[in-house]
Specification:
It is built from two helices and 13 strands. With about 220 residues, the chain is mainly beta.
Length: about 220
């Protein structure tokens, strides 16, 4: 894939799935449409509360997908840990500003979507989850991509649109599996965009029009030994 610079308001989403819940227990009936950057499956049963999902698992179901969106959550419910096969977690449009440490114990998780929340710092627990493939934290208040981002070694999609990013580490170049980096609606200079394009020549980069601001030290690298 080649880098793609996109103008404001021209959103390009990889997937906009319509998941219908007809006759499937535990699924959302009123909010079946999900528009997210990560590539979520159409053919799994989506549960919309932890209790129902845990009960289904106790009856022999393999619970792969859970949608906790629009539930005014300030914390992820601890019973989430009981879902031993959980692979896809949606927690968008809540009041989250952190993830609990125990999330790192959920080693089957591959995709975490937490758009439209209150995160100011990238959750450190995600650095202990190298198996994650897709992370979406759009429309938060994140102020930079951490230097340790390359600890999430299997990461394929990183979606951080509509944040307050001012730091773009060179360690992004160590993410050998990265395919898509969505930075739409973050203020970036031409120089910052150019450096990311040079650093990630085979990654699809989604940018807005560059700002007319002074270039500073927004591009970070590891200090020399």
């Amino acid at each position: 894939m080649i880098p793609v610079c996109q103008a404001p308001f021209l959103f390009k989403r990889l997937a906009a799935f319509v998941l219908l819940s007809w006759g499937l227990p535990g699924l959302s009936w009123g909010q079946a449409r999900r528009e997210v950057i990560v590539d979520l499956p159409e053919d799994v049963v989506w549960y919309d509360d932890v209790e129902t999902a845990v009960q289904a698992q106790r009856k022999g179901a393999v619970v792969l997908a859970l949608d906790l969106s629009r539930q005014r959550l300030k914390d992820l419910p601890p019973d989430l840990m009981l879902l031993e096969d959980l692979t896809y977690l949606l927690a968008s449009r809540n009041r989250l500003d952190h993830f609990p440490d125990w999330l790192a114990d959920m080693t089957d998780l591959k995709a975490v979507v937490a758009d439209h929340n209150r995160f100011r710092n990238f959750p450190e627990v995600l650095f202990r989850m190298p198996h994650l493939r897709q992370i979406s934290m759009g429309d938060n208040e994140l102020q930079g991509i951490p230097l340790d981002i390359d600890l999430i070694a299997d990461l394929e999609v990183l979606s951080l649109w509509s944040n307050l990013l001012a730091a773009f580490p060179a360690s992004l170049g160590n993410l050998e599996q990265l395919q898509i980096l969505d930075l739409l609606h973050n203020e970036m200079t031409v120089e910052e965009q150019g450096m990311l394009m040079a650093l990630l020549p085979n990654v699809q980069l989604n940018f807005s029009e560059p700002c007319d601001c002074d270039f500073d030290t927004g591009f970070q690298s590891y200090p020399s030994e």
